[in-house]
């Protein structure tokens, strides 16, 4: 069975002087996610609308760089996972705890962040940035505990998904999954466990065969 591995993509650098011919013009490197050779020509009348695709001209590896993320959270963030292959992501956040709740441990870790403090949530609406480059021509679908139609809306003009939760119970954890329909075309191929190690297995099997032949003779 194919196993999906964790992928960690890092933004190497931004070089405003990058050109396709000379790269970053330093030690032969060409790792900038932006290149002047591809950028939109400067024009006073150029559109600055968020959904204007020409604003992305000059960008490189944009499927890795341009990603959705929770921008304003009506609670305490716990976990965020993004799938670069289909554009979906999962997010978990919790309502803060007040009153006579157990005290927060002195040492808080990312898996168990402090939930009890003086934070006051004044709104129940969480906002996610979802770039139109990914969502254009697709439907944004939100699922999760207590999520129903009418509680969320994606406004492409401002590249924002608005999600309103209804459960305000202190300490309650909200878990949502956001997907695009149809999903994005995959950009990364995952290998199976057997494919990664087939040469090692083959060499080991050959070694055992030779060893057995030597012993038997």
Helix content: 10-25%
How many helices does DSSP assign?
3
The unreliable regions are: 1-8
Number of strands: 8
- Strand composition percent: 15-25%
The major beta sheet can be summarized as: 4 strands, antiparallel
Overall mean confidence score, pLDDT:
82
Spell the H/E element sequence: HEEEEHEEEEH
Taking Cα atoms only, what radius of gyration do you get, to the nearest Å? 24 Å
Instruction: Please state how the strands of the largest beta sheet are arranged side by side.
Output: 1-4-7-6
Tell me what the CATH architecture of the domain at 68-181 is.
Sandwich
Distance from first to last alpha carbon: 39 Å
Structural class by helix and strand composition:
alpha+beta
Q: Which of globular, elongated, flat, extended, rod-shaped describes the shape?
A: extended
CATH topology of the domain at 68-181: Immunoglobulin-like
CATH class of the domain at 68-181: Mainly Beta
CATH 4th-level superfamily of the domain at 68-181 = Golgi alpha-mannosidase II
Written overview of the protein:
The protein is α+β, with helices and mostly antiparallel strands and 217 residues long. The protein has a domain at 68-181: Immunoglobulin-like. Helix content is 15%, strand content 21%. The chain is built from 3 helices and 8 strands. The protein has helices at residues 62-65, 132-135, 193-216, and strands spanning 69-72, 76-82, 89-94, 125-129, 139-144, 152-155, 160-164, 173-181. The strands form 2 sheets. Strands 1-4-7-6 form a 4-stranded antiparallel beta sheet, with no helix packed on it. The longest helix is centred in the C-terminal third of the chain and has 24 residues, at 193-216. The two termini are 39 Å apart.
